[in-house]
Design brief:
single chain; about 375 residues; alpha+beta; Rossmann fold; Dna Ligase, domain 1; D-amino Acid Aminotransferase, Chain A, domain 1; nine-stranded antiparallel beta sheet; 11 helices; about 30% strand
Length: about 375
């Protein structure tokens, strides 16, 4: 059945902002996207072809939702993979595959995968409890990452000395050696069922120091062509070894000695690709659609250098969202505002993003800084 047929149904688990931007692209191809999401007021609620309010972690709910779909995808990896395996075995195409999701949901399995496949990553140890963390006191400092459940900077602790143990997770986790990095960069790779692959140009990430969330993204990253080529090759290797169909965002540490180390990956559209809506020929959201439906992959070339700013809820504000100085920002040229449709704000919640395009990347960055100083999400 053709993807543009009225009877074709694409199901998506998760109804947040990634799903909303995905649906906005799918509409251009007459693809009907049906969404399963617990939050009845999630960003996808108003634009999905069908919006089912339900728990994507519940086995029976996922089975009932997915059984009549031609293809199933996700916008968040924390979903019921047992149900997805059953649907896959019954003939429903599930991309990314449940086996990929199981690997990526567990940071310990991720790290072991990199090690087993000669993919460069920071040295690490796996521990199961606070007691086991204490066994490595002489080797501090570490980044402690919960093996499961972490998301958007959550599930991570810095352990520099014994006093930090009071803050550590008493649960299965990864102890990752500190990396003396110059910057953090990311490459998004797309792969379809025919093993066709393409990558987006490398981007540079700048994090909010308090929330540990991406605050700015620059495209292209300020790295050598050799570094970019190496990052693209590693990203393709990861995607091929995982046998993933769909998008895979591969985040790297670029060390001060010029080494690329894979930090984490995400099997979906990703914050490090939002600038592609205006900055690249094919947005990451259209590319994800193309890859999971077996379409030819789109051109990822840069149309214009771009800087993305994440709009985060201001500290000290919780309640109905208000966008301070939005009118002033909308007067600015080559500034593209994306609001996610979240009616309630809270500190550091992702409420939208702004992409600034300019032939001069430093000019775009300066304008993005100006936008940040003006546009505040308050209540």
């Amino acid at each position: 059945m053709n993807f543009y047929d009225k009877e074709f149904k694409l199901g998506m688990l998760g109804g947040g902002q990634l799903g909303k931007m995905f649906i906005q692209e799918a509409v251009n191809y007459n693809v009907q996207v049906c969404v399963l999401e617990l939050d009845s007021k999630a960003p996808c609620a108003l634009i999905a072809h069908e919006f089912i309010c339900g728990d994507f972690n519940d086995y029976d709910t996922v089975i009932a939702f997915g059984k009549d779909k031609n293809v199933l995808t996700i916008e968040i990896e924390h979903v019921n993979t047992d149900a997805l395996k059953q649907l896959e075995s019954s003939g429903v195409k599930v991309f990314p595959q449940p086996s990929v999701l199981e690997l990526i949901k567990d940071k310990g399995l991720q790290k072991q995968f990199y090690q087993q496949n000669d993919i460069p990553t920071a040295p690490f140890k796996l521990v199961s409890s606070e007691e086991e963390v204490r066994e490595h006191l002489s080797e501090f400092p570490f980044m402690q990452k919960a093996r499961t459940g972490g998301y958007d900077g959550k599930g991570v602790h810095v352990l520099k000395s014994e006093k930090d143990i009071e803050q550590c997770f008493d649960a299965p986790s990864v102890l990752e050696e500190f990396v003396d990095f110059e910057k953090e960069v990311s490459v998004i790779v797309a792969r379809n069922e025919h093993n066709e692959m393409t990558t987006y140009p490398i981007v540079e990430l700048e994090f909010n120091p308090v929330a540990n969330l991406v605050e700015y993204l620059k495209c292209p990253a300020d790295v050598s062509s050799e570094i970019e080529s190496e990052a693209m090759d590693i990203a393709k290797k990861v995607a091929e070894k995982m046998d993933v169909v769909g998008l895979l965002a591969v985040e790297f540490f670029l060390t001060k000695s010029g080494e690329l180390l894979v930090n984490e990956v995400a099997p979906r559209t990703h914050n490090s690709g939002h600038q592609s809506i205006e900055g690249n020929v094919t947005s990451q959201f259209e590319q994800h659609l193309r890859s999971i439906l077996g379409m030819p992959l789109g051109d990822t070339s840069i149309v214009m250098p771009s800087v993305m700013l994440n709009l985060l809820g201001e500290a000290g504000f919780t309640g109905k969202a208000k966008y301070e100085n939005l009118t002033e920002v909308l007067k600015m040229t080559q500034v593209h505002v994306h609001l996610y449709g979240k009616h309630l704000t809270k500190p550091f919640r992702k409420m939208g993003h702004v992409t600034v395009t300019d032939n001069n990347l430093s000019e775009a960055y300066s304008k993005a800084k100006e936008v940040k100083s003006l546009l505040k999400v308050i209540s």
